[in-house]
Prior knowledge:
Layout: H1 33-40, E1 49-52, H2 80-93, E2 97-100, H3 112-121, E3 125-130, H4 140-145, E4 147-153, H5 158-165, H6 169-189, E5 194-201, H7 209-219, E6 223-228, H8 248-255, E7 263-266, H9 268-271, E8 290-291, E9 296-298, E10 312-313, H10 319-324, H11 326-338, H12 352-362
Parallel strand pairs: 1-2, 1-8, 2-3, 3-4, 4-5, 5-6, 6-7
Antiparallel strand pairs: 8-9, 9-10
Amino acid sequence: MTVAGDAAPAPAGWDGSAADAYRMDSHKLLWHLDRVVPWLRGERIAPLYIDMGITQTCTIACRYCYYSVPEHRSAAMIPTERLTAFLAEAARIGVKAVGFLGDGEPLLHPGAGAAVVAGAAAGLDMALSSNGVVLPREDLAEFLAALTWIRFNVAATPASYVGVMQTDAAVFDRVVGNVRRCVETKRRHGLRTTIGLQMVLIEESAADIVPFARLGRELGVDYAVIKQCSESHGRALGLGDRDCGRFAPLLREAEALADGGYRVIVKWRKLGNRGVRGYDRCYGCEFLPQISGDGGVYPCGNLFGREEFCAGSIVGESFAEIVAGERYRAVMERVRTEVDVHRECGVNCRQNEINEFLWRLRHPPEHVNFI
């Protein structure tokens, strides 16, 4: 194993060169060619980055979330000792970063803060995406210092929060207060942690686009990002396959609210992408697998719960042994050779931009030396 439609044209900087300094609407494999080149040679590689849930429970029911309906939720939670052991193993085999991003709300896990700190101590870049309803009351500075970034999913106003998050207006006030606490703590302690807001654009919330950007500027976060809803095969919400290009004037108005160090990022590439792919096979999962909130290791979140695509569980197994094992290899091979990305994969999947890049590498143009 090697360890080292009518959508408006995207504005200048859409690829991360200006407006999107974090390259949220693209990918960063060009900075990891030491892992890409062995993969091209057919060698087994360790993942670069892992998206994972650490629990499958949540206290609100956002309309754009797959887990907003009871049948997709459970009380599953990865034990803290196994979670911290996993992070140490991941760092040891060459994983660079881990994000606690779902399936449930990570800050409902009582060991979330300790795990973030342990992951950073092991050498991982750590990130966390939260609905912001709860926040560590003690050691907030230590928690934030261990994170490369933290992002809060919000709506722009109490009224829209009630409609989109399907909870009450008092929760909106609590979330805004928690974001303020993070910003104040960052400033007080001189932390480098990037703090962001995220709006998932669905038709019913389009009027929130500009107020959302204003909210981010008012709160003093580093960025506010607007993305289209993703859909997962078999768990479609009926919200993702929409023509969001007609909101381009509002989106550009929101971008214009960027000020100084505050950025407003629109994922332009995904807004007009209704599942059209320029590749025929999925390669990206080897670089970015995902782990469900019950500990199952899968190639991607689209396949959560499908036993034939589960490579193991970090609850009862060593992650290093899972990645080095035959079942992990067989699952990744099955994804590469059997999954029909045009029929089986969800809209705006997590690995899409990685796949576009890797497919082109595997299928070079004619006359490649005439650069």
